[in-house]
Inverse folding.
């Protein structure tokens, strides 16, 4: 099988083989839904939100990536992240105490920055692997009346992109291909700026998600990760069972992202995109949402709308109208 996510049709079949019998599961595994929701009981005003995500594309700053990508799944439920667990697998070759301590420092710093507690996990030196692998797990909580899902998009909603796409991909390319980029004539200053994209504009969406939920009645949220914006919007359509129209000409791509993608022949709309946030709201909530993001100096723009119809995405660009299909492999895999 090729590297990348499992085919959605195959994954759907696999998930359907294991029906959930516990009534405390409010939301279980489904295409486009990146975090499960559990009800601890009627006496609690909160749901527990639980997620798991690995880091496999990069090893540089892997501890920070691990905390944040899991945190993002919690944030898109309208929830607050609380507890983090990490499984760290180190290769036999090249691993030493200094490397282990550095990754733990990254995890601790990220948890401290976002008010999260590291509560457990597993570490080992593992035969048969060539690079460090981090598999993260996170638990958060959300008031029951404030829960947001990916499937919640409603007919007539506007689709909004917060920040831009290819933030995570830009940092990965700069970190993994630094020497090659220098040889190609990219300046050290350009590469350094691209590397720091994980912090500015940042691969986290927690603040953006909380701003949105405080300013408007958000019907649906999703953070596009592997497969970029393309897969993110398709997953929203599948989860909600709605037809989504998107104008790709309105999608914001950072200059550094565009230049690096052009250099390696990548479509920035299909590159891993942690840091971007997709959400849907009623048109009546748009003014308040725009004011809230503008006050926080966070770019946000309408890129589409939700229609009744089959679960699909119709995209408009310079070439006309076409249906978007999910990418089987993230574009960034082309650089490895």
């Amino acid at each position: 099988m090729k590297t990348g996510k499992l085919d959605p049709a195959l994954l759907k079949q696999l998930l359907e083989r294991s029906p959930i019998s516990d009534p405390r599961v409010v939301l279980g595994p489904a295409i486009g839904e990146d975090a499960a929701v559990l009800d601890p009981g009627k006496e609690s005003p909160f749901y527990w939100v639980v997620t798991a995500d690995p880091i496999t594309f990069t090893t540089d700053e892997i501890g920070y990536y691990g905390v944040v990508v899991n945190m993002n799944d919690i944030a898109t439920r309208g929830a607050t992240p609380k507890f983090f667990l990490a499984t760290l697998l180190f290769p036999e070759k090249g691993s030493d105490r200094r490397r282990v301590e550095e990754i733990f420092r990254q995890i601790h710093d990220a948890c401290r920055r976002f008010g999260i507690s590291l509560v457990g996990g597993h570490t080992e030196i593992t035969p048969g692997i060539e690079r460090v692998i981090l598999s993260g797990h996170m638990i958060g909580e959300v008031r029951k009346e404030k829960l947001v899902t990916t499937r919640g998009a409603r007919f007539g909603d506007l689709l909004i992109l917060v920040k831009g796409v290819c933030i995570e991909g830009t940092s990965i390319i700069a970190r993994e291909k630094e020497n090659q980029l220098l040889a190609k004539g990219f300046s050290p200053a350009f590469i350094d700026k691209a590397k720091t994209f994980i912090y500015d504009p940042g691969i986290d969406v927690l603040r953006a998600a909380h701003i949105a939920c405080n300013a408007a009645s958000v019907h649906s949220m999703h953070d596009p990760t592997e497969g970029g914006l393309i897969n993110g919007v398709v997953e929203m359509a599948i989860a909600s069972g709605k037809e989504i129209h998107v104008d790709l000409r309105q999608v914001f791509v950072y200059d550094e992202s565009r230049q690096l993608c052009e250099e390696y022949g990548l479509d920035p709309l299909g590159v891993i995109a942690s840091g971007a946030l997709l959400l849907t709201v009623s048109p009546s909530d748009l003014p308040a949402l725009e004011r809230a993001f503008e006050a926080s100096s966070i770019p946000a723009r309408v890129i589409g709308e939700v229609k009744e119809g089959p679960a699909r995405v119709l995209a408009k660009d310079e070439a006309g109208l076409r249906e978007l299909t999910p990418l089987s492999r993230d574009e960034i895999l082309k650089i490895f």
